[in-house]
Amino acid sequence: MDENRAEGTVRNIGGKMQEGLGRAAGDAATQAKGQLNQAAGAAQDVYGQTKDASRDTAASVSQWLRDTIETQPYTAAIAALGIGWLLGRLHRPF
């Protein structure tokens, strides 16, 4: 789990407490700051979730590529040669 998820959750909870204290005290500024902290905490939590998902996706793509190379080495070699040829052709006119 990404540290942004934990920090975002803590900030969100703190913002809820701050908003509740502002509401109880009748202080609109504290209540607004609490709502702002809740929004910032939620955004940070979503950022952490996105970061975790991208890390998992990259790991699964890496594992798929590794498995393909191990099980089909000739196909992987031909694909690598084809990609190399295409990259070489990018700098020359057809």
Could you tell me the strand content as a percent range? Answer: under 5%
What structural class is derived from the secondary structure elements?
A: mainly alpha
Query: Could you say which overall geometry the principal axes of the C-alpha atoms support?
Result: elongated
Distance from N terminus to C terminus (CA atoms, Å) equals: 49 Å
Tally of alpha and pi helices? 3
Report on the architecture of this protein:
The protein is mostly helical and 94 residues long. The protein has one domain (3-89). Helix content is 89%, strand content 0%. The protein has helices at 3-25, 28-71, 73-89. α1 (3-25) packs antiparallel against α2 and α2 packs across α3 (73-89). The longest helix has 44 residues, at 28-71. It is elongated.
Task: Kindly summarize this structure in a few lines.
The chain has 94 residues and is mainly alpha-helical. It contains three helices and no strands. 89% of the residues lie in helices and 0% in strands.
Please outline the helices and strands:
Layout: H1 3-25, H2 28-71, H3 73-89
Helix pairs in contact: 1-2, 2-3
Question: Which keywords apply here?
Answer:
single chain, about 90 residues, mainly alpha, 3 helices
